[in-house]
Design brief:
Blueprint: E1 11-17, H1 23-31, E2 37-39, H2 40-47, H3 51-61, H4 74-81, H5 85-109, E3 115-119, E4 134-139, H6 142-153, H7 157-165, H8 170-176, E5 179-182, H9 186-202
Parallel strand pairs: 1-3, 1-4, 2-3, 4-5
Helix pairs in contact: 1-9, 2-5, 3-5
């Protein structure tokens, strides 16, 4: 399907934030309100299971990132790319264009909604912030973020800090965002999101 940006009528609300900020929890909350939400990490995992994408990734990184069934082993893949900036860049050069096409198809399918939400950690780095009517950055104190990721991924503080260093800072995100929502207490963060959504609904 050919993507024609000029025919997109819906407003795109961008949601971003660093690892462990809780942006996915916020995106999931918005989804419960019947608003179409594109959660990039979830969709990227689906895209990475497409046979042609699997083939390209194995060609790039070798058979050592596969399991016994010749599928990509996510844990092995993460260990390889998060410790090697060049390999992460190469992986992204395969996955990101495919996710972009997948997202554009989704956007066309949801074009009749007043607004849709795109949640991604790399909203600014990928340049997709340019297509957003408003941007919400989800933040949390560094120690809170580290603890969340350690618990979620069963990993170490050193590994989390290494991943954080690969991302832009909250200060940079805040300076480019329309709204900043601190997500320490999820219920309070949801209240702030409700206020923002109400503003969007009456615009």
């Amino acid at each position: 399907m050919f993507f024609d940006k000029t025919k997109i009528k819906t407003k795109v609300v961008g949601i971003t934030g660093g690892i462990g900020s809780g942006k996915s929890a916020i995106a999931n909350y918005i989804q419960t309100k019947g608003i179409p939400v594109y959660i990039s990490d979830v969709e990227a995992k689906k895209v990475m299971d497409f046979p042609d994408v699997v083939e390209k990734i194995i060609f790039l990184l070798g058979k050592e990132i596969t399991d016994k069934s010749n599928n990509i082993d996510r844990k092995k893949l993460a260990e390889v790319v998060f410790n090697d900036a060049d390999k992460l860049k190469q992986l992204n050069s395969i996955v990101h264009p495919e996710v972009k096409k997948h997202y554009e198809n989704w956007l066309q399918e949801n074009n009749n909604n007043p607004f849709v939400v795109k949640e991604t950690a790399i909203l600014f780095e990928s340049g997709s912030y340019k297509d957003c009517a408003i941007i919400i950055n989800i933040t949390a104190p560094l120690e809170t973020r580290i603890q969340r990721v350690i618990e979620r991924d069963k990993t170490t503080k050193e590994k989390v800090l290494s991943r954080i260093k690969n991302q832009i800072t909250d200060e940079e995100r805040n300076s480019k965002s329309t709204f900043v929502v601190e997500n320490v207490d999820l219920e309070l963060a949801k209240n702030k999101i409700d206020e923002i959504l109400k503003t969007l609904s009456i615009q």
